[in-house]
Every structure is written in C-alpha cells, then in structure tokens.
Amino acid sequence: MKEEFKAFVIDRDESTKEQSQGWKTVSTDDLMDGDVTVRVRHTTMNYKDALAITGKSPVVRRFPMVPGIDLAGEVVASESDRFQPGQNIILNGWGVGETHWGGYAEYARLKSDWLLHQPEGLSGADCMAVGTAGYTAALCVLRLQDLGVKPEDGKVLVTGASGGVGSFAISFLAQLGYTVAASTGRMEEEPYLKTLGASEIVDRGTLSGKGRPLDKETFAAAVDSVGSQTLANVLSKIAYGGTVAACGLAQGVDLPSTVMPFILRGVTLAGVDSVMAPLETREPAWSMISKTLDRDALAQITQSAALEDIEDLASQLLEGKIRGRLLIDVD
Length: 331
What we know:
Number of domains: 2
Distance between the termini: 19 Å
Order of helices and strands: EEEHEEEEHEHEHEHEHEHEHHEHE
CATH topology of the largest domain: Quinone Oxidoreductase, Chain A, domain 1
Structural class: alpha/beta
Strand content: 25-35%
CATH superfamily of the largest domain: Medium-chain alcohol dehydrogenases, catalytic domain
CATH class of the largest domain: Alpha Beta
Shape: globular
CATH architecture of the largest domain: Alpha-Beta Complex
Largest sheet: 7 strands, mixed
Radius of gyration: 20 Å
C-alpha cells in the first residue's frame, strides 16, 4: 500500500538549530517503523503539542517530526495478531509526536503495544475529545481511589481547573460522588466549572504565591496539574492522611515545599504518568471513562477545530485562551 497524503511536519536546521514547520505531502513509505498502519480520523491538541508546534520547549527530540500525541482511527494494515484491518483504535502518548510521527497527518504507522481498541460505548471523536487530558484525569482519580480517598473524607481540590485535565477531573470526581473545589485564575469561568460539578471555586492567586510550610487542613485530597509553588501550597492544605495526585507542571518543574506535610500529617504525594503507563494501567482508566463520562459535561468541555488551524490554536492554548479540549476532525 502506498498513499500520498498531507502531514504537518516540524523540522530543524541542524546548523542554526532553528525550527520550521508546515504542511507537506508525504507518502506511507515515509512513515516510521511499526506493525500497524492507521488511517487517522480524529486527533486533538494538548499542551505538549502546542509546545512542540511553537518551539517554546524542546518537546520534539527527533526531526523531522509529525506532532500530535493523541489519535483515533481505523486500522488499514496490520502485522499484529491483536489488530485487524477495519478495527478502530486509539493511542495516547508513548513518545508519539516527540520521537515517533503522530496524529497531525492522514496516516500513522505505530507499534501495536501502544494501541488500545476503541473503548466500548465511545466513538473515536469521543476518545479524542477526552484525549490525554481526560485519560490523565482518569488516572489521577483512580490513583486517589487506590490510595483510599473516599467521597465522605471531604473536599477534593482540582488545580488548573479550566484546562483539559482539570475539567475532566472535576467531572469524573463529581460523577463519583466527591465534593470538588476548583482552582482557576479565570474567575469568569465559575459558571462553567460549576456546570461540570464543582461546588466551590478557589482563586488561583491564593495558591500560586509563597505560602506557609503547613497550613490549615482544608482538603482531603487533590488533583494537581500545575506543580511548583501551587503544588507546595496544596500539600500544606491537605488533611491528615490525605493524598495529592500530581500530573503536571504548568507553573513550573520546581517544588518549593518542606517535609512537614509528609512527616506531620502523613500526606502522600502520588505521581501520575500518562505517557509510558502500561496496558494494565491504561485499560482500567479508559473503562472508567466509558462508564463515568458525563456527555453533557463532555459537550461543555469540548470545542471543534480544524486541522489546518493548529499553528494558531497552539499559540492560543499556551496563552491560556482555550478552555477545555479541542477536537480535531482529520477527515
């Protein structure tokens, strides 16, 4: 099978280290190694994709590169026993869009170990509206549950609430019976966040500046996608025996905290990785999503976008101008 198609390709001049990008016509013969070839139907844009496209951070580690860390599509050729032509698959992470060509193209060739069958009850468009953001939120919620956090324990704080991970975390937690406090720097988003299930809105400014090593026990647990000083302040406000599921670094990679929340209150800081999580971790997360997903909330969280607009969308996303999730129809 040889097909010519359009792909968004990022390249770099090795002498000047300057990045360039744009639409190119490539062929299925140009695709990278893998045992499953997929006709991409839907993709999305994550924070990492926006960084790659704008070159704001060295996300891309191999050139030329087709970005897009999420994709959903139809198998057109397979050397794997797990997948047959005509089946629908989804993919999140595994270095796709960083070291292996990703979803901003009409075709992708991928390793079967990276792929999941499209979850029952969800369309490809649904899965990409959820994307890595919703999948990561699901991993965080499962992590809290695995560590014993129950709805009756008290409020769960979600930071970065207006973003993709935060929006889905609020919705999933609310659907599971938790009382959710949502932290955002955009207080005008209060109606949106309460529609998702938040019962309380916390001004991001109260968490983003330097705080006390140990503060009032305010929350039973938290989902944090911000990191840095915000995460330090969140830890200081967690009640005895509580847990924080940490999955992001929107504010920074540092953690200016102390050991006091850990040794005086027995707080657990639980790291959550979505990129390299094994199949046995991914499948329960997507199963929870298919059972818990609030369709009305999904509609609130998602906006549709055109693939040809990804450069403008990347800049808008990094500037905090995009709420929730972007669903991109590759067809």
